[in-house]
Every structure is written in C-alpha cells, then in structure tokens.
Amino acid sequence: MLKIKGLQKTFNAGSPDEVQALRGVDLHIEGGSFVVVIGSNGSGKSTLLNAVAGGFLPDAGQIKLAGRNVTRWPEYRRAKLIGRVFQNPFSGTAPHMTIAENLALAAHRGQAHGFGWALSRHLRQAFCERIRALAMGLEDRLDNEIGTLSGGQRQALTLLMATWLKPRLLLLDEHTAALDPKTADQVIHLTKAIVAGEGLTTLMVTHSMHQAVNLGDRLIMMHQGRIIRDITAVAKKRLRAEDLLEQFNEVRRAEQLDPGTAEMLRALYV
Amino acid sequence: MNLLLGSFTIGLILALLALGVYISFRIFNFPDMTADGSITLGAAVAAILLVHGVAPIGATLAGAAAGAAAGAVTGLLHTRFRINGLLAGILVMTALYSLNLHVMGRSNVPLLSTATLAKEAEAIGLAALGGQTVFNCFGWEVSVSDMAMLVFACMAVVVVCIGLYLFFRTNLGTAMRATGDNPQMIRALGVNTDTMIVIGLALSNGLIALSGALLAQYQGFADVQMGIGMLVWGLASVIIGEALVRSRGLAMTIVGAVMGSVLFRLMVAIALRWGLNPNDLKLITAVFVFVALILPGLTARIQRRKEAVVMSSLTSK
Ligand SMILES: Nc1ncnc2c1ncn2[C@@H]1O[C@H](COP(=O)(O)OP(=O)(O)OP(=O)(O)O)[C@@H](O)[C@H]1O
Ligand SMILES: [Mg+2]
After folding, report:
1. Nearest Cβ partner for B172 among A79, A90, A115
2. Does residue B271 lie within any of the structural domains?
3. Alpha-carbon distance A21 to A36, whole Å?
4. pLDDT tens digit string along B232-258?
5. From the CA of A43, which ligand is nearest?
6. What are the pLDDT digits (tens) for B120-161?
7. ipTM above 0.90, yes or no
8. In a domain, B224, yes or no
9. CB-based contacts of B223: which residues, under 8 Å, 6+ apart?
C-alpha cells in the first residue's frame, strides 16, 4: 500500500541550523496493516508522516501510495488517499464552524467542491447517528461551533472526519498526546475500533509505551532520521514494555560511542 | 429628511464595500489592501462604458467584473509568488491608480448627461407614481428620485446578502470559510487553499467594485481619488456591525455588516451637520477603527486587573 524508498529531507540546508531530519528511510507497508512508530524526540517521526502527507517535498527518495507515485503531488491532492489526525486538537478542525459543517467538509474529502449544498438532511442524519455512537453527548450539538468542545471531543471528531470516507492510509501523529489519560484511552479505543472495523492501513506515532506494546501488528523505531528497528508479526505480538525499554537503552549506549564507531556498528548489526 | 434618505442610500451602497471587506478580512483573515483601488476601478469602468453608451446594467456588471479581476491578481501575487498578503494588496492598489487614470482618460468623469441606474430607477419611480416628482411619506415631502434610488440600493443589497448567504453554505463556500478558519485542516481534507484565496479575493473585490460603480452613478461622477480611505471605511462598518449583532453566525454577520455601514454613514452625516470639518473625516475614521481594534484587548486587561484587586483584597482579609 505504502512504499517509501530512500527518503531524505534536510531542513535549513547549508545554514548553521541545518537538520538532517530524514536520512534515507525505506519502508514498505502492506495494505491493512497497523504500524506503530516510536522514537526519541527529534528522531524524525513527524517529519516522516508529513512527508507522506505532502506537507513538504523530500530532497530525495520516492513515495508510492496505492500503486501511484505521489512523491511530487501537492498535499491537497494526496488528501484523496490519506486521512490524518494531528497531535494538536486545534489543528484538525475549523474552530469557528459547526460540528455539522466540519463533518460535511470531511464527507467531501478529496472531491471537487462545487455549488451543491454542503449539508443535506440525509448527511445530517448520518452525522447524528455516527456521533451518537461516540457516546460523548455531541449528537444534540451538531450546530455548535467546534471551538467550544474539549480537546478529547475534538480529537474524536477529527478521527471520524479522517475516516468518514475510507482513506487508503490513515496517519496518526501522537493524536492522544495532548489529552488527559482517561480521554486518551477513549480516543485510543475509538481508534482501535475504527481501524479494525474498516481494515485501515495505519501509520501511528506514539510516545506511550503502553500503546506501542498493545496496538498494531508492527512496530518501527526511529532514531536520527532512520528506521533502526522493525518488529513484525509474532515478535510484535510477544513484545513487552521491558523489551522496548531495553531497545531504547541499547540505542542510548550506542550514542555514547563516537559517531563513526556507532555508524559502523549500526551498519553491521541493524 | 433628505439628509437621512441620502445617508441611507450611500450607507446601503457602501454596504457592498463592507461585505467585500468582511469577506477578505473576516472570512479569509486576509488583510487585503486592494479595496481602495478596486472601488475606484469599478466606478471608472462603469463610468467610461456609460459615457460610451453601454446600458447601465451592463456597465455596472463590467465594473464589478473588473474589480474581481483585480482581486484575483492580488490573490495570485500572494499564492503563486508567495508575496506577503498586505504587500500584494498594496502593489495592486498602487498599480490600479495609474490604470484607473488610463481607463477614465482624465481624473474625473461626469455622468450628468448619460443614462445611469440612478436615472433608470428614478424613471421607474416616476412612472409608478404617475409623474409626481414629490410625494408624502409619513408627513414628510420626499422627492421621488431620492426614494427610488434608496429602494433600488436596498434591493441590490438584499439580493447580494441572500446570494452570499446561500453561497457560503455550498460546498465551495464552506471550503472557503474553512480556508480562513484553519488552512492546515482544509488542505488535509483535499482543498487547494491557494485556489480558494484567489476566488475569495475576486469575490470580495468584485463586490467592492460593484459598490464603486453604484456610488459613481448615484453621485453622478467617477473620480480617481474616490477610493482613498475606503478600506478603512469598510472595516469601520464591519466592526460596528459586529458590535451590533454580537454573533458569529453567518447570517447575522452579513446583516451586521450592512447595518454597520448604514449606521456609520448616518453618524458621519450627523457629525458633518454639527460642523465637523470634512477634512478631518478620514483621520477620525482611522482613529475610530484604531480604538475599536484595541478596545476588546483593553477591556479584558482592565477586567483582569479588577479581578486581581478583588482577589488580593479577599486574601488579605
Ligand atoms: N519545518 C522544519 N524546519 C526546520 N526543522 C524542522 C522542521 N520540522 C522538523 N524539523 C527538525 O527535524 C527534526 C525531526 O523533527 P520531527 O518533528 O520529525 O521529530 P519527532 O520524531 O516527531 O519528535 P517528537 O517526538 O518531539 O514529536 C527535529 O530536529 C526538528 O527540529
Ligand atoms: Mg512529532
């Protein structure tokens, strides 16, 4: 479904604040698989998701999605294939528009925007039913501005919006990081239900050890702009939190060696 | 009474300007400076076509179309060439000054001897009242020509308001509002925000130019200077309107912009009657907008200070 080859991105190239955010990422994701991405701060997780979504064009490499080479496609064009939930609850919704209007925009994701009415009775009915299933008491508030909702309610709605039309790929970038633990749990439950229910191909970044261990069927670990671990199938199922911590420590130990040696060891063992 | 009628009429004509400013400043969050140029452009194009014998309705629509084109240029400068929005508007506004002089061929085009929408409205009014030039309206003697233009301006504004309201509820209109509200989100939902901005600025400046075309026909001339300060005028109307309706709903804000424009024009007319020096008008408008812009922040700060005083007096007890 998603094929990434030799992806590279350097921000502020040639200036003192040059950052090599992606240093050659190769990733191949099968249709229907749920991939969890972990890694330390600044390791390039968000940059990878942004590159796939089309937030910027990569310096080198290729991105293929659903059989199409989308490397040079602008972000709005890729949106036809991609559903997205951001870390910041404010990013995924238009705050001064109503719940119904936001959902209506999502119901037209990637389609031509013409002179048809954005909202129909039929659509409102569908929204109402779907929102009732969230059990957040939002079904009577379809005409309230989304800006009046809590962060958790917004993230739940953003998730609904991202998946209203079945996307070929769902991108979740720490979408529960800004929520309190209880709300985060709710949103994770919803995520699981939707991903499993629709069989969505999913790429999810998280900092939660708990989520990393319990969610998904594959786990990749990023470090300094590269994928350094890729745990699949049975190994992923058996994975425990302690194993992950051990992996982190290993990376940390490698960092204390001088960069050249670390590079060599990585080339040998990873 | 005539002062009142005249203020209402100009207020309504300039309500179209206010609606244009509302679209760029409020819906798109885009500080579009093109307005001063596009209102004159609308007047200039309409006036010169009228002088050349084009039918008033056609000349008026051509003026609006010219304004829309100017707005689209500002949008393209901003989206294609990544020029700062404020600067893009200023560039087009400046260029339009020369362009308007070229269109008109001189700095002022009188419309006294040509057919205009104002005269057509008057003719219809006279025909309807059987040739009376003055009629009695709730005890006041009102000239038919003044009344006819007021009714016409009123109808034009109502049509535009309903049109805008319906438009902003279509898929395209909803995507446009979202572009101003959260561009990141709407791009992730597959909308090309650049296109939305270009169309939105075209719509905004089309309305502003329409306002200019009607204004020229009402006052009987187009002048290359007539656009100066109009953007701030429109902004003042929008701000007054928001204070009046105190709602962010689509229908209410549209109505608010119209009410704000009429009220502002009335206030200005009264102030001028009381002896305000017309030369000070733009200064006072600017100061007014300045105060209106800083007022919400200021009251919030005073409120907080009050609360702090209350809190500290509570804790000291
Ligand atoms: N637009 C940008 N301009 C400049 N540098 C950037 C930009 N985006 C990301 N970076 C840099 O690229 C590196 C990788 O950032 P990225 O956001 O991908 O990390 P991350 O793995 O998501 O981290 P976190 O866990 O903190 O979210 C960081 O050093 C960051 O400062
Ligand atoms: Mg990140």
Report:
1. A115
2. no
3. 19
4. 999 999 999 988 888 878 999 999 999
5. 1
6. 998 898 888 887 778 777 777 888 888 899 999 999 999 999
7. no
8. yes
9. B40, B43, B107, B108, B109
